[in-house]
Every structure is written in structure tokens, then in C-alpha cells.
Specification:
The complex is a heterotrimer of chains A (399), B (343) and C (253).
Chain A: H1 6-20, H2 22-25, H3 43-66, H4 74-90, H5 95-117, H6 122-141, H7 145-148, E1 177-178, E2 181-182, E3 186-191, E4 194-199, H8 200-221, H9 223-233, H10 235-239, H11 245-270, H12 281-294, H13 301-318, H14 321-327, H15 333-343, H16 351-365, H17 369-385
Antiparallel strand pairs in A: 1-2, 3-4
Helix pairs in contact in A: 1-8, 3-8, 3-9, 3-11, 3-12, 3-13, 4-5, 4-11, 5-6, 5-11, 8-9, 8-11, 9-11, 12-13
Chain B: H1 2-32, H2 39-57, E1 60-69, E2 75-81, H3 82-87, H4 89-97, H5 99-121, H6 131-153, E3 169-171, H7 172-176, E4 184-186, H8 187-209, H9 211-221, H10 223-228, H11 233-255, H12 265-280, H13 285-302, H14 305-310, H15 314-329
Antiparallel strand pairs in B: 1-2, 3-4
Helix pairs in contact in B: 1-8, 1-11, 1-12, 1-13, 2-5, 2-6, 2-11, 2-12, 5-11, 8-9, 8-11, 9-11, 12-13, 12-15, 13-15
Chain C: E1 4-13, E2 16-26, E3 31-35, H1 42-50, E4 57-62, E5 65-66, H2 72-78, E6 80-83, H3 95-108, H4 123-135, H5 151-163, E7 169-173, H6 181-197, E8 201-205, H7 209-215, E9 218-223, E10 226-231, H8 233-237, H9 240-252
Parallel strand pairs in C: 3-8, 3-9, 6-7, 7-8
Antiparallel strand pairs in C: 1-2, 1-4, 4-5, 9-10
Helix pairs in contact in C: 3-4, 3-5, 5-6
Classes of the chains: A mainly alpha (399), B mainly alpha (343), C alpha/beta (253).
Chain lengths: 399, 343, 253
């Protein structure tokens, strides 16, 4: 189907199901129950899950296939966001031009950065991309304030020209829309104690993510994708086989930059504001984490990694001391206190500590990420039961 | 003219910090072949050693002083640091005042221990793994270290003053024959520069004149051959890692009065220090030191208002810009060796 | 006029004259061996042929075109394929994928952005790659990872990859270095078979005299950066100058 093998098609269908039914899947707990706070089925979080999924899918095309570790991809996301918000200020609040232009601008910027950075490889490449991203960040904060809004960032204003839209009425605020369908409009469905929210913006982002995922499968299976893997495997042999590795890596760099721009444009389409902090190098580090955690070089890994990190971030940050006490209440007092003391640093504001630990453990013990972990678990099951119908490892991890 | 001298001086302290961190990075990279993204965290931990010691010295118990009363007429509660009891009030106060320099002694064993544990416990297992894995695992470690510090010390910068004796500024202008008060420079920054120079000198002397240093230098040049000679190079490299950690830690200790320690200062310096290492030439110790000072001074020139009038914002990006130009024109950096990280 | 013409090539590294004044002509469809003691400049000469080094003086013409100043991939596209001393293959890719890459390189050139085709739908490439795997007796290993192959199989694969580009000149850099006797003989047989079945010129740089005398039709002896003699294997065997060059080496060692 769609030029995909049977296995890839089923992978695509799984991602489609996960994305389209996310409002159900992420809302497993009934409203008003003690666990309801761990529901993740609200629009803002779901949008982030899929948008960062797109970002990671794109990053994986560069890092997973060619092995070039960029530490500056947040710059492309940021540039895409700025381009999108300017389209909203100048042309229309319709998200289509914003998203299209964000891809183009991020692509052009990544062409420039890639053209220079790819003259070097290895750690030099990582540091060059880092330098470019930090430069963009510093400039966005200082000199480029007229374009970027500096510290305050940018958001649509009443006074913006917006030449394609009708003038706003007094007191009316500009809202991102798709031909009139507002991105923040939602439909709700109440089944028993459960309440499910279907958000227009989320479904736009989810459909874009599915398309992005489909394109990444095509790239992985194409001759171009094969050459990118050849770059990672043995550049010397590649050059002596009559292949010019430079344009291949540059093309991969630009494609992943365009994915980042798309993610940046979508972020603006969902939440119409931009600040320079989304270009900071920790943001670049985050997409590296997502890709590695999920499984670099695998198709579904980055989606899982992005989903896992954003979902865990949401849940872990919400746990507080009270909840811990509830959980461990059944234990004797001494052990309860000890456990709470031990776990407390990792929850709430300690989310980054948890993230850092998970990340280290993954790099040390599971370099292939969640996908490899899933495969290992599946292999173990197969050996134990010698049952070929155990679920494929790629589908087991969370989201 | 006086402005130029002032900017050179201003660049020295930041340059010193860059140079010290870059020196440690290069030592680790040159000997162990590991790209250590957690090196900035070691600098940060050093700074927090100073914070910790000054807190320890300020440990107090509360006594009720009958001779003094507050405005309600109740006897006043006074905090008395334990050091007053042990060394007398005057000596005790001096010790508290000199907390930062004293932290040097305190931090050396702490940093060496942290470095050795890091190397034996984690880095050792990554010698044979690709550079990308090394970057990633040390990056994860850096996050963990900085979050631990944040958990115990909070997110706000903690002011850690230098001793009273170094509080003022020195008027260089008068000394060099310019007008008075044109070039004034805080004493502590002079101390920092001198301290950095001593540490750098000590590291070089150590590598140059001791057998240990000779083996390490040989190991940097050709690890396998030295291993074949029957010298236990791994053990020496562990010690080398400890030393590099101590150098970063000391840089951090002394930097505490210049820039109040906060949990993310390590990352801020790390990114720049990597740029410094690359500009200096991966694996070249003199290159790291030279580039550290060069970029520190360049940064301070770029922040002169006269320069900013011409090229606004240049102070923010000058280091990165220089790094990009150098990497493209001299791929091995200023003093890089052939064959280092050229895969 | 040979297919490869090396004229007056010299190369100096600092104070070391690695190549003096090398003249060499490799006739089309011949097997030409270049031998010489260590440090004779064999590797330097080879690197000049494939674009890794640019000689200080002289010219290197392949099929009437200069190769100097061209990048390795351009020289490969002209029709020169190189086999390395330690087999250079794509270790992370399957044997089949390894074989497909040179087929793509031959048909599509140095770069093509075909990001939306499925490579497994490309009948022509698949057929070519499979045929070459058959020729190399590796069809049963097509799904194995390159890195998992034995040393001899890696060498076979590498030679197969070079051949699937249908090069006019195959350069072999000590193809049997570090190999066990059995693997060496297999490689010799493979090369003989290639020679018989295809219109191809082979230039071989080799240390192992057994390999050289089993394969070569013409031999150039290089010593201290200059060609000593060039002749048929039979004449080379008893040549006094050659014995001297090699004897000199043994004495030095």
C-alpha cells in the first residue's frame, strides 16, 4: 500500500491509530478519580506530543541515518516559529501560509548552516552546529529584537496589518484558524465518567505528523536513504564507490531542518507566540534525547521517544509529596519515610534529574533505545514460550 | 589606549576560566580520547565547594545574650558560629572571611575523588564506544549533576564574597601613567588571573618534568605503543582524569566571587570552552590555553561601546563567529595536531 | 599507449623524496603488478592514482584524461575502482545492500536525490546486484551484515562491489595481506577467473611474490621511489637489480 512493504504499512497504521485515537488512549482514568490527574488527553499536551514527534522524526533522518550528531537543531525550529508568526502578523491568521513558509525559511537557513558545518565531521560538526544555534539564540535576544521581539517574544497584535483578513473588531483577538476552523476549538464526548476532548489543532498536527512519518518511511526505504546509511557506515568506501557523500549529507541536513521548521510552524499554529528560549541549546539537546531514547535509526523510535519524554514530563512534574505519601501509605512508617526521601528528588521540579538518569541508563545499557528494549523483551518472550505471535516489540512501549 | 588596556584586563579573568576548563577538557580528550560534556559540571561543582565550605564555616548555634535587648526589651538571640568557640572571635571571623581561598584546600580532594569515581564508574566503559555515545552519556551526566546541585542549593545564584582584603579595586591607570581612575580593576580578578597562571604553569611543569607526565604525554601521542611497553597506562589516565577534574574545580572555586554560583553556570561555560578547545586545536594543551585567553580578550573587546556602535550585538556572537571562521580556514584549530579526531 | 599512463610523477614529503621520477604504462586488458620493498613508494603512487594525493610533478592520464586534482569519487566515476588492503565494505549494511550501492553509483552517478522511490522496487539494480552475488558465490549470505562476514568473504564482497561498477581499471592494494594461505589461494583463483571472464585491466600492488607471479603479465619493480625495471614475470625472477633491491631490504631489516 502507498508504495510500502507490508511491514511498513502495518507500522504506519499503528502510528495512525495511536495518533487518531490519542484522546482516548491518553485518557484512561475516569474524571474525578484519584488518577485523573495523570490523564494526558488534553489538547495542549497532545499537540506537543505530536509536534515534538515531527521534530524528532526529522532529526532522526540526519542523526539516525548519517550518524552526524547535530547539537543545533533547535535553531531551525525557532526560525520556523518566527517565520510562522510573521506570516500571521502580515498575511493571515490562517495556518497554511504560516506552516508552508516556516518550512521554506527553515530549509533555507539549514542549507546555509549545513553547507558550512558539513565541511567538518565528527565532534567538529557537532560543535559547529552548536555554535550556529547559540549565535542564532544570542542574536534573537539582542540585535534582531525588531524581528524577534527580543525577550518578550512575538504574538499577534490588534495593530498587525494582516492584509488577507478582515479587520478585527474592537476587543476581538486574532485566533489561528484553518479556513475559519479555529485551532483551539474542541468537541467533547462524555462516556460514563470519562470525558474525551477532540481538539481541531491537535488533529491538524496529528495528520501532519502522520504525513511526516509516512515520508520518513519512504526516505528510509529509498536509494537516497540507503546512501545516507552508507555515509554512516563507511564514508571512505562510499567515496571510492563513485558517490559524493557531501550532497547526500547536506540533503539529509536540509530535510531534517525542514522537519524542524515544520514543527516550529505548528507550535505557532497551536499557540500563537514565540520566544527565543526555544532556540537555546538545551532545546537542541532535548531532541537528541528523544531520538536516542526512542531508538536512533529506527522508524518509530523518535515518535516513541518524543511521546515518552513529553508524557513523562507531564506526569512526573505533577507528582508531589502528598501523592507519594498516598502511594507508600501501606508501608511501615520508617520505610515509608525512607522511600519518600529517596524518590522525592526525582519528582515534581526534579523531572530533569529523572530525565538525565533515564537518558544515561539508556545510553549505557540500551544504545538502541526503547525500540531495542522492546525487541529484547519480545525476543525473551519468544524464547520462553516459543510463541511466534507475541506482540512485536516496536509497539509495546508507552504512548 | 587606556580603553584597550582596560579591555585586555577585562578579558583576562574570563579568559583564565576558559583556559582552565579547556585545559582539563584537552587533557581528558588527549589522554583518554573521550569528549567530556560533563566537564562544565565539574567547574560548577568546584564553585559549589566554595559555597559549601563557607556554609560549613558559618554553622552556628544560638545563644541568648542577656547584655543586649531588642526593642521590646527581650534578651537578644545571637547566632554564634562554632569557629568562634574553637579559634576565638577574631581568628574565627578571619577564617569565615577567607572561606573562598580556604576552599581550594577543601576542594582538591573532593574534586579528585569525584573525577576518579566518574572515570572508574562511567567513562572507563566508553573508551571503545563511538564519540557520539561519549558525548551523549557525559551530556546525561552533566544534566544529572546540575540537577542534584539544584535540588540541594536551589535555583538562585548564591553570592560568595571574596575576602575583605581583596574587596577594592586597583588603579592601573595611575600605575601605567594614564589619568587616575581610567583603568580600575578589582583585586580579586587580578588574584584569579595570577591563580590561573600558577595552575596552568603547574600542570605544564608536571607534564614536562615528571616521569608520570612524560608517560602521559607519550600516551597522548600514541596510546597503544605506550600500552605495549608494559606501563599501566589506564591507572595513570585515571589519575589524569582526577587532575583534570581538580583543575576545573579550582577554576570554579576561585570564580565564585566573580560570578555568584548557580546550577547552570557549568553548562554556560562548557559550550564556550568546547569552542575554545576547537579553536585552540583538539588535543593541544598550549592551544587550549592560548585560545582561552584570546577568546576571553576578544569577547571583552567586542563588548566595547565603540565596537557595538559599528556592529551591534557582536559581543554576543564573536566567539562563535571566530570559531566558525577558524574551523573553516584552519580545520585543526590554531595548534592542532594531525590525526586527532579526523575520522 | 596504455589505458593508464603515469609520466614523470614525483612527490616529496618535507625532506623525503617519496617518488622520484615514475614512468609507468599499464596496457589495456593486462594484469600489471607493481612490487617493491617497504618504503619504495608503492602506496604513495597508488594514492596519486586515486586522487588522495596530488603529485608535485608529472601527469597521470587515464584513458586520455588527466586524473590529477580530481576527487576520489570522480576518479571512480571515470572507471577506476579500488580494492583496499583491509577490506572496506559497509559493515552496518546487509551484503545485498552493499552490492546495490555500487550498482546505483554506476547507473545514477555521484549524487541523485531519489528520496521517494522504493529501492526494492528497482528491478534493474536488484537484478544486477543479485547476479554479482551469484558470481561471487555469496547469494546465500545476502541478508548477513557486512561486519559479520569472514575476512575472505569481506574481500570477495569488496571485489564484487568493485566489479559491479564494470570498471575499466581495477586497482588492488595488497589484496591478500594478512590472509591465511587458503584464503590467499581463493583470492588468486577469483582474480584469475575475473581476468578470464571480463574485459578488464588489473593493476595490483603486492608484497607476496606468490600472488604476483601467479597473476601478473607484466611487473614493475619500484625501489626508493623510482621504477627499477619493468618486464615479464619470467625475466623479473632472475633479474640482478631486483635481487639487489630485495636483498638490500633484508640486510636493512
Amino acid at each position: 500500500m502507498l508504495g510500502l512493504s507490508k511491514k511498513d504499512t502495518s507500522l504506519l497504521i499503528i502510528v495512525c491509530i495511536l495518533a487518531l485515537f490519542a484522546p482516548f488512549i491518553l485518557n484512561p482514568f475516569p474524571e474525578g478519580s484519584a488518577m485523573a490527574q495523570f490523564n494526558a488527553g488534553y489538547p495542549d499536551l497532545m499537540q506537543r506530543l505530536v509536534i515534538f514527534g515531527i521534530f524528532a522524526i526529522g532529526f532522526n533522518i540526519l542523526f539516525g541515518l548519517t550518524g552526524y550528531l547535530s547539537f543545533g537543531h533547535a535553531a531551525f525550529l525557532g526560525v520556523g516559529s518566527y517565520a510562522a508568526i510573521w506570516m500571521m502578523k502580515l498575511l493571515t491568521m490562517n495556518v497554511i501560509p504560516a506552516i508552508v513558509v516556516s518550512i521554506i525559511v527553515a530549509g533555507a537557513f539549514s542549507l546555509l548552516v549545513g553547507w558550512i558545518s558539513l565541511r567538518r565531521s565528527g565532534i567538529y560538526f557537532s560543535i559547529l552546529t552548536l555554535a550556529f544555534a547559540q549565535m542564532s539564540y544570542a542574536l534573537a535576544y539582542s540585535v534582531l529584537t525588531p524581528i524577534t521581539g527580543g525577550e518578550t517574544g512575538l504574538q499577534p497584535k490588534y495593530t498587525d496589518p494582516r492584509i488577507f483578513d478582515r479587520a478585527l473588531e474592537q476587543g476581538e483577538s486574532a485566533r489561528a484558524n484553518l479556513f475559519g476552523l479555529q485551532m483551539n476549538s474542541s468537541a467533547e464526548l462524555s462516556v460514563g465518567n470519562w470525558l474525551f476532548t477532540f481538539n481541531a489543532g491537535y488533529y491538524l498536527a496529528a495528520i501532519v505528523m502522520i504525513v511526516a512519518f509516512y515520508m520518513s518511511i519512504r526516505i528510509f526505504r529509498s536509494p537516497f536513504g540507503l546512501m545516507l546509511r552508507a555515509v554512516k557506515s563507511n564514508q571512505n568506501r562510499m567515496n571510492y564507490t563513485g558517490m559524493n557523500s557531501k550532497p547526500y549529507t547536506l540533503a539529509a541536513f536540509v530535510i531534517s531542518g525542514m522537519y524542524a521548521g515544520l514543527a516550529g510552524g505548528l507550535l505557532v499554529a497551536m499557540d500563537t507566540q514565540v520566544g527565543a528560549e526555544r532556540m537555546f541549546w538545551t532545546a537542541s539537546g532535548e531532541v537528541v534525547l528523544m531520538t536516542i531514547l526512542g531508538g536512533a535509526g529506527t522508524l518509530i523510535g523518535p515518535v516513541l521517544g518524543a511521546g515518552f519524554i513529553k508524557y513523562m514530563e507531564n506526569i512526573v512534574s505533577k507528582i508531589n509529596k502528598g501523592i507519594l505519601e498516598q502511594w507508600f501509605a501501606f508501608l511501615p512508617d520508617g520505610i515509608e519515610d525512607l522511600l519518600i526521601t529517596l524518590v522525592y528528588p526525582f519528582i515534581g521540579k526534579g523531572w530533569h534529574l529523572t530525565l538525565g538518569m533515564i537518558f544515561m541508563l539508556v545510553v549505557i545499557f540500551l544504545p538502541g533505545g526503547l525500540v531495542e528494549g522492546g525487541q529484547r523483551v519480545a525476543a525473551m518472550f519468544r524464547r520462553k514460550k516459543s510463541n511466534p505471535e507475541t506482540p512485536d516489540g516496536k509497539t509495546t512501549p508507552a504512548e | 589606549m587606556d580603553a584597550i588596556v582596560l579591555q585586555i584586563l577585562n578579558g583576562l579573568d574570563k579568559g583564565s576560566a576558559y583556559a582552565l576548563i579547556a585545559l582539563g577538557l584537552t587533557l581528558i580528550f588527549g589522554t583518554l580520547g573521550v569528549v567530556n560534556f560533563a566537564h562544565g559540571a565539574l567547574f560548577m561543582i568546584g564553585a559549589f565547594c566554595a559555597v559549601t565550605l563557607s556554609r560549613i564555616l558559618n554553622w552556628s548555634y544560638t545563644v541568648i545574650d542577656e547584655s543586649q535587648t531588642d526593642f521590646l526589651g527581650n534578651p537578644l538571640k545571637v547566632d554564634v558560629p562554632y569557629v568562634h568557640d574553637w579559634f576565638g572571635v577574631q581568628t574565627g571571623d578571619t577564617i569565615i572571611d577567607w572561606a573562598v581561598p580556604l576552599s581550594i584546600i577543601f576542594s582538591i580532594p573532593v574534586m579528585i575523588a569525584i573525577g576518579v569515581i566518574m572515570e572508574r564508574g562511567l567513562i572507563k566503559h566508553f573508551y571503545k564506544r563511538p564519540h557520539a555515545d561519549q558525548i551523549l552519556v557525559t551530556f546525561g551526566l552533566a544534566i544529572v549533576l546540575q540537577e542534584i546541585i539544584k535540588y540541594y542549593y536551589g535555583a538562585n545564584p548564591i553570592p560568595t564574597p571574596a575576602p575583605e582584603a581583596f574587596a577594592g579595586s586597583y588603579d592601573f591607570g595611575a600605575m601605567l601613567g594614564f589619568d587616575a581612575n581610567t583603568i580600575i580593576y578589582p583585586y580579586w580578578r587580578l588574584v584569579y588571573f595570577a591563580f590561573a597562571a600558577v595552575i596552568i604553569g603547574a600542570v605544564f611543569a608536571f607534564l614536562q618534568f615528571t616521569t608520570f607526565g612524560m608517560v602521559v604525554r607519550a600516551g597522548m601521542a600514541d596510546r597503544e605503543t605506550v600500552g605495549l611497553l608494559g606501563i599501566n597506562i589506564d591507572k595513570r589516565f585515571t589519575i589524569m582524569f582526577g587532575i583534570a577534574a581538580a583543575v576545573a574545580g579550582l577554576a570554579g572555586v576561585m570564580y565564585a566571587p566573580i560570578n555568584s554560583p548557580n546550577y547552570h553556570m557549568g553548562m554556560d561555560f562548557l559550550v564556550l570552552s568546547f569552542v575554545v578547545v576547537v579553536v585552540g586545536g583538539m588535543g593541544s594543551l598550549p592551544g587550549a590555553v592560548l585560545a582561552g585567553f584570546l577568546l576571553g580578550i576578544l569577547e571583552s573587546f567586542a563588548s566595547m561601546s565603540i565596537v557595538l556602535e559599528f556592529i551591534p550585538g557582536i559581543n554576543q556572537i564573536i566567539i562563535y563567529l571566530v570559531a566558525i571562521i577558524i574551523l573553516l580556514t584552519r580545520p585543526r584549530g590554531l595548534m592542532g595536531r594531525k590525526g586527532v579526531m579526523e575520522d | 599507449m596504455g589505458i593508464l599512463e603515469v609520466k614523470n610523477v614525483g612527490k616529496r614529503f618535507g625532506g623525503l623524496q617519496a617518488l622520484g621520477d615514475v614512468n609507468l604504462s599499464v596496457a589495456e586488458n593486462s594484469v600489471h603488478a607493481i612490487i617493491g620493498p617497504n618504503g619504495a613508494g608503492k602506496s604513495t603512487l597508488l594514492n596519486c592514482l586515486v586522487g588522495l594525493l596530488i603529485p608535485d610533478t608529472g601527469s597521470v592520464m587515464f584513458d586520455g584524461q588527466s586524473v590529477l586534482g580530481r576527487k576520489p569519487y570522480e576518479i571512480n566515476q571515470m572507471g577506476i575502482s579500488r580494492v583496499f588492503q583491509t577490506p572496506e565494505i559497509f559493515g552496518d549494511l546487509s551484503v545485498m545492500e552493499n552490492m546495490m550501492i555500487p550498482c546505483f553509483a554506476k547507473r545514477d552517478g555521484a549524487f541523485q536525490l531519489s528520496a521517494f522511490k522504493n529501492m526494492m522496487d528497482d528491478k534493474e539494480i536488484i537484478e544486477n546486484a543479485e547476479a554479482m552475488l551469484e558470481d561471487m558465490n555469496m547469494a546465500d549470505k545476502r541478508e548477513m551484515h557486512g561486519a559479520a562476514l569472514s575476512r575472505g568473504d569481506k574481500r570477495r564482497l569488496e571485489i564484487g562491489m568493485c566489479l559491479s561498477q564494470q570498471p575499466r581499471l581495477l586497482l588492488l592494494d595488497e589484496p591478500t595481506a594478512g590472509m591465511a594461505r587458503a584464503d590467499t589461494n581463493n583470492t588468486i583463483d577469483l582474480l584469475k577467473q575475473i581476468k578470464e571472464e571480463r574485459d578488464i585491466t588489473i593493476a595490483i600492488i603486492e608484497h607476496d611474490m606468490h600472488v604476483v607471479f601467479s597473476l601478473a603479465e607484466r611487473i614493475t619493480v619500484l625501489a626508493q621511489g623510482t621504477p627499477l625495471v619493468e618486464d615479464t614475470p619470467d625475466n623479473i625472477k632472475g633479474h640482478p637489480k631486483v635481487r639487489e633491491a630485495y636483498l638490500g631490504e633484508t640486510q636493512a631489516a
